[in-house]
Amino acid sequence: MNMRYSLSSTSALLAAVSWTCFSASFAFVPSTVASTVTTSFISVRPCTPHTVSSSTSLCAVGALVKKAKEQELRKYIESGVEEHVMEKYNLLKENLATINDETLADQVVGPLQESLTRRKGTITVIAEYKRKCGFNPTGLIHEMHVPELLSPSFREYGASAIAVMADPRMGGCDYDDIRHFVEEQRRAKMEVPGPLPVINNDLIVDELQVARSAAYGCAALVLNLPTLGVEQTKVLLKATKAVDLEAIVAVSSKEEAQTAIDSGARMLSILHLGTVEDMVAAVDGLVIPEGQQVCKIANILANNDQQLQEIEDAWSVRDQGFNSVWVGEALYKGGADPNEQPGGIIKSMKSKSSLKFASPKAARGRGEGAREYLGDILM
């Protein structure tokens, strides 16, 4: 029986959480008042200068998105937290005492980071699963297959990791989808290629979500620095390490990228930048602590056409020193058949092609050179 942890006897906790959310939504509430409010699972902070932009409008958008996620999390708590999630949460709290800023500053490369970081001149692919998209008028991906069908396709066609946008509003997915991907990948343990790590791309705002990600079998999760702010990002980086997960910190500027590294991030996801030049500028000249490695991930945006500019973008960021590409909607522009669209896009992005001699938009392959894959040649 799937037992759940009931919070019916902790109404005071939920009342405290509600008051904290209310007080944090007003910038003029004195910090001395806010600090007296006791919180358990949900810790809310007002919008800080470290958000997406210094403009009030963008700051407000981030605050609204965060507030919606906090409300969703409260409903989850009220419905009863699963026992195996509570076990992870308690473990997280126990281990936090052993993790400090020095621990984050001196890190060993984890399995996911190692998987995403190949030799110079190569690129790895993070394939994202989602049911919602921006290129379709309906907002949904047509004929989207269930995780059990796409999961082996991602593995067989060469992805290095799978991400699940486990946010019903943004991605149309939830933690059950994560569980299905994790279970399918585990069944490939004795196969070649072997299991892929699964990344939770929910909007993480609290330690409980970190514990839930670990309990559901994720290898890593995404922390959005512009939305969380610096201090909350540090708190969640420590929480992530406390349950042996890896963290990918999403940033949108060079300033945020450097702040993330200084806070202990060792994998950066560059998002909300529309051009290759902007993404390259966001990671150019970053100061990395001596002896540490930073994995640079470029988010490849889907174009509103049927051409293959996204593949060319992947080749471009590869040639500019990025280690990996995060591909979501672009995988499904032509449909979701695992053998024709997502698999083909992944394979093309990894292919040994040069922008000097070939283009994925060309009708013929003349002049493209060798057809081997980078992994086949260099690994």
String of helices and strands: EHHHEHHHEHEHEHEHHEHEHEHEHH
Distance between the termini: 46 Å
CATH homolog superfamily of the largest domain: Aldolase class I
Order of strands across the main sheet: 3-4-5-6-7-8-9-10
In short:
The protein is α/β, with parallel strands linked by helices and 379 residues long. It has helices spanning 11-24, 31-34, 56-79, 83-96, 101-105, 111-116, 147-156, 175-186, 207-215, 225-228, 230-242, 254-263, 276-283, 309-319, 342-350, 374-378, and strands spanning 4-5, 81-82, 124-129, 161-164, 198-200, 220-224, 246-251, 267-270, 295-300, 324-327.
Tags for this model:
eight-stranded parallel barrel, TIM Barrel, alpha/beta, 379 residues, disordered C terminus
Task: Give the topology, please.
Elements: E1 4-5, H1 11-24, H2 31-34, H3 56-79, E2 81-82, H4 83-96, H5 101-105, H6 111-116, E3 124-129, H7 147-156, E4 161-164, H8 175-186, E5 198-200, H9 207-215, E6 220-224, H10 225-228, H11 230-242, E7 246-251, H12 254-263, E8 267-270, H13 276-283, E9 295-300, H14 309-319, E10 324-327, H15 342-350, H16 374-378
Parallel strand pairs: 3-4, 3-10, 4-5, 5-6, 6-7, 7-8, 8-9, 9-10
Antiparallel strand pairs: 1-2
Explain what you see.
This protein has 379 residues and is an alpha/beta fold. It has helices at residues 11-24, 31-34, 56-79, 83-96, 101-105, 111-116, 147-156, 175-186, 207-215, 225-228, 230-242, 254-263, 276-283, 309-319, 342-350, 374-378; strands at 4-5, 81-82, 124-129, 161-164, 198-200, 220-224, 246-251, 267-270, 295-300, 324-327. It folds into 2 domains: 4-89, no CATH class; 104-352, Alpha-Beta Barrel (TIM Barrel), CATH 3.20.20.70. The chain has 16 helices and 10 strands. Helix 4 crosses helix 11 and helix 7 packs across helix 8. The termini are far apart. The model is unreliable at 6-40, 43-58 and 363-379 (pLDDT under 50).
